[in-house]
Amino acid sequence: MTAPDDVNSTMLLDMEYRPKAPPKAREPIHTHDPARAQRVNKERPGMRRINLALQGGGAHGAFTWGVMHRLMSDRRLFIDGLSGTSAGAMNAVVFADGFLKGRRQGAIDALETFWRRVSRSAHASAMFRPPELPNRPNNWNLDASPSYVMMDLLTRLLSPYDLNPLDVNPLRHILDELIDYEALRARDDLHVFVSASNVRTCKPRVFRTSELSTQVLLATSCLPMMFQTVEIDGEPYWDGGYLGNPAIHPLIHECISNDVIIVQINPMNRPDIPRSAKEIINRINEMSFNSSLVREMRGIATVSRFVEDGLLTNTNYDRVNFHLIEAEVELGQLGASSKLNTDWKFLKHLHDLGYRTTERWLAENFDKLQVCSTLDVFERFT
Protein backbone atom coordinates (compact mmCIF):
# COMPACT_ATOMS: atom_id res chain seq x y z
CA MET A 1 0.00 0.00 0.00
CA THR A 2 1.55 3.19 -1.08
CA ALA A 3 -1.23 5.41 -2.29
CA PRO A 4 -4.91 4.63 -2.79
CA ASP A 5 -4.60 4.63 -6.57
CA ASP A 6 -1.42 2.60 -6.73
CA VAL A 7 -2.21 0.09 -4.02
CA ASN A 8 -1.64 -3.36 -5.42
CA SER A 9 -2.61 -6.71 -4.05
CA THR A 10 -2.40 -9.99 -5.91
CA MET A 11 -0.45 -12.27 -3.66
CA LEU A 12 2.08 -15.21 -3.29
CA LEU A 13 2.60 -18.97 -2.43
CA ASP A 14 2.53 -21.82 0.10
CA MET A 15 6.20 -22.73 -0.21
CA GLU A 16 9.57 -21.10 -0.37
CA TYR A 17 9.22 -21.94 -4.05
CA ARG A 18 6.01 -21.55 -5.99
CA PRO A 19 4.91 -22.72 -9.43
CA LYS A 20 5.40 -20.00 -12.01
CA ALA A 21 2.07 -18.50 -12.98
CA PRO A 22 1.09 -17.80 -16.59
CA PRO A 23 2.61 -14.54 -17.88
CA LYS A 24 -0.67 -12.64 -17.64
CA ALA A 25 -1.01 -13.46 -13.94
CA ARG A 26 2.62 -12.56 -13.28
CA GLU A 27 2.47 -8.93 -14.46
CA PRO A 28 4.82 -6.73 -12.38
CA ILE A 29 1.82 -4.89 -10.99
CA HIS A 30 -1.89 -5.70 -11.07
CA THR A 31 -4.60 -3.07 -11.10
CA HIS A 32 -7.75 -2.52 -13.11
CA ASP A 33 -5.91 -0.10 -15.42
CA PRO A 34 -2.95 -1.77 -17.20
CA ALA A 35 -1.64 1.56 -18.50
CA ARG A 36 -1.66 3.03 -15.00
CA ALA A 37 0.02 -0.12 -13.69
CA GLN A 38 2.90 0.23 -16.14
CA ARG A 39 3.26 3.94 -15.38
CA VAL A 40 3.31 3.38 -11.62
CA ASN A 41 5.90 0.64 -11.98
CA LYS A 42 8.19 2.91 -14.02
CA GLU A 43 7.75 5.76 -11.53
CA ARG A 44 8.95 3.59 -8.64
CA PRO A 45 12.05 1.81 -9.94
CA GLY A 46 13.73 1.45 -6.55
CA MET A 47 10.71 0.31 -4.58
CA ARG A 48 10.81 -3.07 -2.83
CA ARG A 49 7.56 -5.00 -2.61
CA ILE A 50 6.79 -6.92 0.58
CA ASN A 51 4.00 -8.88 2.23
CA LEU A 52 3.50 -8.85 6.00
CA ALA A 53 2.48 -11.86 8.12
CA LEU A 54 1.41 -10.56 11.54
CA GLN A 55 1.11 -12.82 14.57
CA GLY A 56 -1.46 -12.31 17.29
CA GLY A 57 -0.57 -11.96 20.95
CA GLY A 58 -2.89 -9.55 22.73
CA ALA A 59 -1.23 -6.37 23.97
CA HIS A 60 2.07 -7.60 22.54
CA GLY A 61 0.57 -6.62 19.20
CA ALA A 62 1.77 -3.11 20.05
CA PHE A 63 5.24 -4.39 19.06
CA THR A 64 3.80 -5.00 15.58
CA TRP A 65 2.37 -1.48 15.61
CA GLY A 66 5.93 -0.19 16.00
CA VAL A 67 7.16 -2.48 13.21
CA MET A 68 4.47 -1.25 10.81
CA HIS A 69 5.09 2.37 11.78
CA ARG A 70 8.75 2.05 10.77
CA LEU A 71 8.03 0.13 7.57
CA MET A 72 5.38 2.61 6.44
CA SER A 73 7.78 5.49 7.11
CA ASP A 74 10.16 4.06 4.50
CA ARG A 75 9.01 5.21 1.06
CA ARG A 76 11.22 2.62 -0.59
CA LEU A 77 8.76 -0.07 0.54
CA PHE A 78 5.48 -1.10 -1.07
CA ILE A 79 3.18 -3.42 0.91
CA ASP A 80 1.30 -5.82 -1.35
CA GLY A 81 -0.62 -7.82 1.23
CA LEU A 82 -1.27 -8.29 4.91
CA SER A 83 -2.16 -11.52 6.72
CA GLY A 84 -2.94 -11.25 10.41
CA THR A 85 -4.47 -13.02 13.36
CA SER A 86 -6.02 -11.54 16.49
CA ALA A 87 -4.04 -8.38 17.38
CA GLY A 88 -2.12 -8.84 14.13
CA ALA A 89 -5.38 -8.79 12.19
CA MET A 90 -6.53 -5.63 13.95
CA ASN A 91 -3.22 -3.96 13.12
CA ALA A 92 -3.62 -5.01 9.49
CA VAL A 93 -7.21 -3.80 9.08
CA VAL A 94 -6.73 -0.54 10.99
CA PHE A 95 -3.59 0.07 8.93
CA ALA A 96 -5.39 -0.57 5.62
CA ASP A 97 -8.35 1.61 6.61
CA GLY A 98 -6.07 4.46 7.70
CA PHE A 99 -4.10 4.18 4.48
CA LEU A 100 -7.21 4.55 2.35
CA LYS A 101 -8.19 7.64 4.33
CA GLY A 102 -4.81 9.35 4.49
CA ARG A 103 -2.14 7.40 2.64
CA ARG A 104 1.05 6.63 4.57
CA GLN A 105 0.56 9.15 7.38
CA GLY A 106 -3.07 8.12 7.65
CA ALA A 107 -2.03 4.51 8.27
CA ILE A 108 0.54 5.55 10.87
CA ASP A 109 -1.94 7.80 12.68
CA ALA A 110 -4.72 5.21 12.56
CA LEU A 111 -2.59 2.64 14.35
CA GLU A 112 -1.70 5.04 17.15
CA THR A 113 -5.32 6.09 17.53
CA PHE A 114 -6.41 2.46 17.76
CA TRP A 115 -3.91 1.54 20.47
CA ARG A 116 -4.67 4.71 22.45
CA ARG A 117 -8.34 3.84 22.35
CA VAL A 118 -7.58 0.28 23.52
CA SER A 119 -5.59 1.66 26.44
CA ARG A 120 -8.28 4.16 27.42
CA SER A 121 -11.07 1.60 27.24
CA ALA A 122 -9.39 -0.57 29.87
CA HIS A 123 -7.92 2.26 31.96
CA ALA A 124 -10.72 2.15 34.51
CA SER A 125 -10.05 -1.50 35.28
CA ALA A 126 -7.16 -2.33 37.59
CA MET A 127 -7.14 -5.84 36.11
CA PHE A 128 -5.49 -4.59 32.92
CA ARG A 129 -2.78 -2.54 34.64
CA PRO A 130 0.23 -3.83 36.57
CA PRO A 131 0.45 -2.89 40.26
CA GLU A 132 2.81 -0.07 41.21
CA LEU A 133 5.90 -1.70 42.72
CA PRO A 134 8.56 0.82 43.81
CA ASN A 135 11.40 -1.67 43.47
CA ARG A 136 10.22 -2.84 40.02
CA PRO A 137 9.36 0.25 37.96
CA ASN A 138 9.12 -1.68 34.67
CA ASN A 139 7.11 -4.64 35.89
CA TRP A 140 4.79 -5.23 32.93
CA ASN A 141 3.30 -8.56 34.02
CA LEU A 142 -0.06 -8.68 35.78
CA ASP A 143 0.66 -11.70 37.96
CA ALA A 144 0.85 -9.56 41.11
CA SER A 145 -2.41 -7.75 40.36
CA PRO A 146 -5.17 -9.01 42.72
CA SER A 147 -7.82 -8.17 40.13
CA TYR A 148 -6.05 -10.17 37.44
CA VAL A 149 -5.47 -13.14 39.77
CA MET A 150 -9.15 -13.16 40.70
CA MET A 151 -10.30 -12.97 37.08
CA ASP A 152 -7.82 -15.65 36.03
CA LEU A 153 -9.23 -17.96 38.71
CA LEU A 154 -12.83 -17.22 37.78
CA THR A 155 -12.26 -17.94 34.09
CA ARG A 156 -11.00 -21.39 35.05
CA LEU A 157 -14.16 -22.11 37.02
CA LEU A 158 -16.84 -20.31 35.02
CA SER A 159 -17.37 -19.81 31.29
CA PRO A 160 -17.85 -16.42 29.60
CA TYR A 161 -21.52 -17.34 29.25
CA ASP A 162 -21.67 -17.17 33.06
CA LEU A 163 -19.25 -14.28 33.66
CA ASN A 164 -20.21 -12.16 30.66
CA PRO A 165 -23.79 -13.09 29.72
CA LEU A 166 -24.30 -9.86 27.74
CA ASP A 167 -21.15 -10.60 25.72
CA VAL A 168 -19.63 -7.17 26.39
CA ASN A 169 -16.45 -6.54 24.44
CA PRO A 170 -14.99 -3.01 24.49
CA LEU A 171 -13.22 -3.68 21.18
CA ARG A 172 -16.57 -3.84 19.37
CA HIS A 173 -17.30 -0.15 19.92
CA ILE A 174 -13.72 0.91 19.07
CA LEU A 175 -13.64 -1.03 15.81
CA ASP A 176 -17.10 0.14 14.76
CA GLU A 177 -16.09 3.76 15.28
CA LEU A 178 -12.66 3.68 13.66
CA ILE A 179 -13.01 1.47 10.58
CA ASP A 180 -14.94 2.15 7.39
CA TYR A 181 -15.60 -1.44 6.36
CA GLU A 182 -17.74 -0.47 3.40
CA ALA A 183 -14.84 1.42 1.84
CA LEU A 184 -12.45 -1.46 2.53
CA ARG A 185 -14.78 -4.10 1.09
CA ALA A 186 -15.17 -2.04 -2.08
CA ARG A 187 -11.43 -2.20 -2.82
CA ASP A 188 -10.77 -5.49 -4.57
CA ASP A 189 -7.18 -4.33 -5.18
CA LEU A 190 -6.49 -4.47 -1.42
CA HIS A 191 -5.67 -7.91 -0.06
CA VAL A 192 -5.99 -8.27 3.68
CA PHE A 193 -6.34 -11.76 5.18
CA VAL A 194 -7.74 -12.50 8.64
CA SER A 195 -7.64 -15.97 10.20
CA ALA A 196 -10.16 -17.45 12.63
CA SER A 197 -10.61 -20.97 14.06
CA ASN A 198 -13.85 -22.81 13.35
CA VAL A 199 -14.94 -24.33 16.67
CA ARG A 200 -17.21 -26.94 15.07
CA THR A 201 -14.88 -28.26 12.35
CA CYS A 202 -11.43 -27.53 13.84
CA LYS A 203 -10.47 -25.90 10.54
CA PRO A 204 -9.01 -22.44 9.97
CA ARG A 205 -10.95 -19.94 7.91
CA VAL A 206 -9.25 -17.06 6.14
CA PHE A 207 -11.49 -14.04 5.64
CA ARG A 208 -10.58 -11.75 2.77
CA THR A 209 -11.01 -8.03 2.22
CA SER A 210 -14.52 -8.35 0.80
CA GLU A 211 -15.63 -10.12 4.00
CA LEU A 212 -14.13 -7.77 6.60
CA SER A 213 -16.29 -6.57 9.49
CA THR A 214 -16.09 -5.97 13.21
CA GLN A 215 -17.56 -9.44 13.69
CA VAL A 216 -14.63 -10.96 11.76
CA LEU A 217 -12.10 -9.07 13.92
CA LEU A 218 -13.88 -10.16 17.09
CA ALA A 219 -13.80 -13.74 15.82
CA THR A 220 -10.06 -13.74 15.15
CA SER A 221 -9.42 -12.39 18.67
CA CYS A 222 -11.99 -14.48 20.57
CA LEU A 223 -10.23 -16.03 23.55
CA PRO A 224 -12.78 -18.69 24.55
CA MET A 225 -12.16 -18.36 28.29
CA MET A 226 -12.99 -14.65 28.15
CA PHE A 227 -15.52 -14.14 25.36
CA GLN A 228 -18.47 -16.00 23.94
CA THR A 229 -18.05 -17.77 20.62
CA VAL A 230 -18.42 -15.43 17.65
CA GLU A 231 -20.82 -16.62 14.97
CA ILE A 232 -20.41 -15.71 11.29
CA ASP A 233 -22.70 -17.17 8.63
CA GLY A 234 -23.97 -19.63 11.22
CA GLU A 235 -20.49 -20.97 12.05
CA PRO A 236 -18.81 -20.55 15.47
CA TYR A 237 -15.29 -19.13 15.69
CA TRP A 238 -12.55 -18.71 18.28
CA ASP A 239 -9.20 -16.95 18.15
CA GLY A 240 -7.37 -17.55 14.88
CA GLY A 241 -4.13 -18.19 16.77
CA TYR A 242 -5.12 -21.79 17.43
CA LEU A 243 -5.10 -22.79 13.75
CA GLY A 244 -3.38 -20.00 11.78
CA ASN A 245 -1.11 -17.51 13.53
CA PRO A 246 -0.89 -16.08 10.94
CA ALA A 247 -1.84 -17.84 7.70
CA ILE A 248 1.08 -17.70 5.25
CA HIS A 249 -0.47 -19.40 2.22
CA PRO A 250 -2.72 -16.49 1.11
CA LEU A 251 0.31 -14.23 0.83
CA ILE A 252 2.05 -16.89 -1.23
CA HIS A 253 -0.78 -17.76 -3.60
CA GLU A 254 -2.49 -14.41 -4.01
CA CYS A 255 0.28 -11.77 -4.04
CA ILE A 256 2.71 -10.43 -6.56
CA SER A 257 5.55 -9.79 -4.11
CA ASN A 258 8.11 -12.56 -3.69
CA ASP A 259 9.01 -11.43 -0.15
CA VAL A 260 7.12 -12.36 3.02
CA ILE A 261 8.15 -10.70 6.28
CA ILE A 262 6.91 -12.56 9.35
CA VAL A 263 6.46 -10.40 12.44
CA GLN A 264 6.67 -12.95 15.25
CA ILE A 265 5.75 -11.89 18.78
CA ASN A 266 5.47 -15.29 20.49
CA PRO A 267 8.94 -16.52 21.51
CA MET A 268 10.06 -19.77 19.89
CA ASN A 269 13.01 -20.53 22.15
CA ARG A 270 13.50 -20.52 25.90
CA PRO A 271 16.77 -21.66 27.48
CA ASP A 272 15.26 -22.83 30.78
CA ILE A 273 12.72 -25.55 31.46
CA PRO A 274 9.55 -24.09 33.02
CA ARG A 275 9.00 -25.43 36.54
CA SER A 276 6.53 -23.21 38.35
CA ALA A 277 2.83 -23.28 37.48
CA LYS A 278 3.08 -19.75 36.09
CA GLU A 279 6.08 -20.62 33.90
CA ILE A 280 4.36 -23.75 32.59
CA ILE A 281 1.21 -21.80 31.68
CA ASN A 282 3.34 -19.15 29.96
CA ARG A 283 5.14 -21.76 27.86
CA ILE A 284 1.93 -23.59 26.96
CA ASN A 285 0.56 -20.28 25.73
CA GLU A 286 3.63 -19.62 23.58
CA MET A 287 3.74 -23.13 22.13
CA SER A 288 0.01 -23.13 21.36
CA PHE A 289 0.16 -19.84 19.49
CA ASN A 290 3.30 -20.78 17.55
CA SER A 291 2.21 -24.29 16.58
CA SER A 292 0.26 -23.39 13.44
CA LEU A 293 3.07 -21.18 12.12
CA VAL A 294 5.66 -23.89 12.80
CA ARG A 295 3.50 -26.49 11.06
CA GLU A 296 2.94 -24.38 7.95
CA MET A 297 6.56 -23.25 7.70
CA ARG A 298 7.80 -26.84 8.12
CA GLY A 299 5.78 -27.75 5.04
CA ILE A 300 7.28 -24.82 3.17
CA ALA A 301 10.78 -25.84 4.21
CA THR A 302 10.20 -29.44 3.09
CA VAL A 303 8.97 -28.47 -0.38
CA SER A 304 11.86 -26.02 -0.70
CA ARG A 305 14.31 -28.79 0.06
CA PHE A 306 12.67 -31.01 -2.58
CA VAL A 307 13.09 -28.27 -5.18
CA GLU A 308 16.71 -27.59 -4.22
CA ASP A 309 17.51 -31.32 -4.33
CA GLY A 310 15.99 -31.64 -7.80
CA LEU A 311 13.15 -33.90 -6.69
CA LEU A 312 10.49 -31.61 -8.20
CA THR A 313 11.50 -31.23 -11.81
CA ASN A 314 8.23 -31.29 -13.75
CA THR A 315 7.32 -27.68 -12.93
CA ASN A 316 9.18 -24.39 -13.00
CA TYR A 317 9.21 -22.63 -9.64
CA ASP A 318 9.75 -19.06 -8.53
CA ARG A 319 11.54 -18.56 -5.26
CA VAL A 320 9.78 -16.85 -2.35
CA ASN A 321 12.02 -14.96 0.05
CA PHE A 322 11.21 -15.19 3.76
CA HIS A 323 12.26 -12.71 6.41
CA LEU A 324 11.67 -12.41 10.15
CA ILE A 325 11.31 -9.40 12.43
CA GLU A 326 11.21 -10.37 16.10
CA ALA A 327 12.55 -9.43 19.52
CA GLU A 328 12.63 -12.83 21.14
CA VAL A 329 14.93 -11.88 24.00
CA GLU A 330 12.94 -8.81 25.06
CA LEU A 331 9.48 -10.32 24.53
CA GLY A 332 10.64 -13.54 26.14
CA GLN A 333 11.08 -11.67 29.42
CA LEU A 334 7.34 -10.99 29.49
CA GLY A 335 4.82 -13.45 30.88
CA ALA A 336 1.52 -14.46 29.33
CA SER A 337 -0.34 -12.14 31.72
CA SER A 338 1.31 -9.09 30.10
CA LYS A 339 -0.68 -9.83 26.95
CA LEU A 340 -3.64 -8.33 28.82
CA ASN A 341 -1.72 -5.28 30.04
CA THR A 342 -3.15 -2.26 28.21
CA ASP A 343 -1.37 0.39 30.25
CA TRP A 344 -0.26 3.09 27.80
CA LYS A 345 3.32 3.12 29.07
CA PHE A 346 3.59 -0.59 28.31
CA LEU A 347 2.01 -0.30 24.86
CA LYS A 348 4.31 2.58 23.98
CA HIS A 349 7.29 0.59 25.29
CA LEU A 350 6.38 -2.26 22.92
CA HIS A 351 5.80 0.15 20.02
CA ASP A 352 9.23 1.70 20.53
CA LEU A 353 10.80 -1.75 20.75
CA GLY A 354 9.17 -2.72 17.46
CA TYR A 355 10.23 0.52 15.79
CA ARG A 356 13.87 0.20 16.91
CA THR A 357 14.01 -3.49 15.99
CA THR A 358 12.73 -2.73 12.49
CA GLU A 359 15.13 0.19 12.13
CA ARG A 360 18.03 -2.19 12.73
CA TRP A 361 16.52 -4.87 10.52
CA LEU A 362 16.14 -2.50 7.57
CA ALA A 363 19.69 -1.23 7.96
CA GLU A 364 20.97 -4.80 7.75
CA ASN A 365 18.57 -6.35 5.28
CA PHE A 366 16.91 -3.81 2.99
CA ASP A 367 19.24 -4.56 0.07
CA LYS A 368 18.36 -8.26 0.35
CA LEU A 369 14.65 -7.70 -0.24
CA GLN A 370 13.61 -9.14 -3.61
CA VAL A 371 17.05 -10.76 -3.79
CA CYS A 372 17.20 -13.56 -1.21
CA SER A 373 15.79 -14.85 2.06
CA THR A 374 17.24 -13.53 5.29
CA LEU A 375 15.44 -16.25 7.27
CA ASP A 376 16.65 -19.84 7.18
CA VAL A 377 13.21 -21.46 7.20
CA PHE A 378 14.59 -25.00 7.53
CA GLU A 379 16.76 -24.17 10.53
CA ARG A 380 14.13 -22.17 12.44
CA PHE A 381 11.07 -24.34 11.91
CA THR A 382 12.30 -27.93 11.50
Explained architecture:
By secondary structure, this protein is α/β, with parallel strands linked by helices. It contains 13 helices and ten strands. It has helices at 34-43, 61-72, 87-122, 146-157, 160-163, 170-178, 181-185, 214-220, 249-253, 277-308, 328-332, 344-365, 377-381, and strands spanning 17-19, 48-54, 77-85, 191-198, 204-207, 230-232, 235-238, 259-264, 317-319, 321-326. Strands 2, 3, 4, 5, 6, 7, 8 and 10 form an eight-stranded mixed sheet that branches. A two-stranded antiparallel sheet has the order 1-9. Helix 2 crosses helix 3 and helix 2 packs across helix 12. The radius of gyration is 20 Å and the shape is globular. Residues 1-17, 19-41 and 133-137 have low confidence and may be disordered.
Task: Summarize it.
The protein is α/β, with parallel strands linked by helices and about 375 residues long.
Main attributes?
10 strands; globular; two-stranded antiparallel sheet; alpha/beta
Distance between the termini: 33 Å
* Share in β-strands: 5-15%
Average per-residue pLDDT, rounded, comes to 84
Number of helices: 13
SS-based structural class? alpha/beta
Query: What order do the SSEs take from the amino end to the carboxyl end, as H and E?
Result: EHEHEHHHHHEEHEEHEHEEHHH
| Biggest pleated sheet | 8 strands, mixed
Number of strands: 10
**Helical proportion?**
40-55%
Radius of gyration: 20 Å
Overall shape: it is: globular
Low-confidence stretches: 1-17, 19-41, 133-137
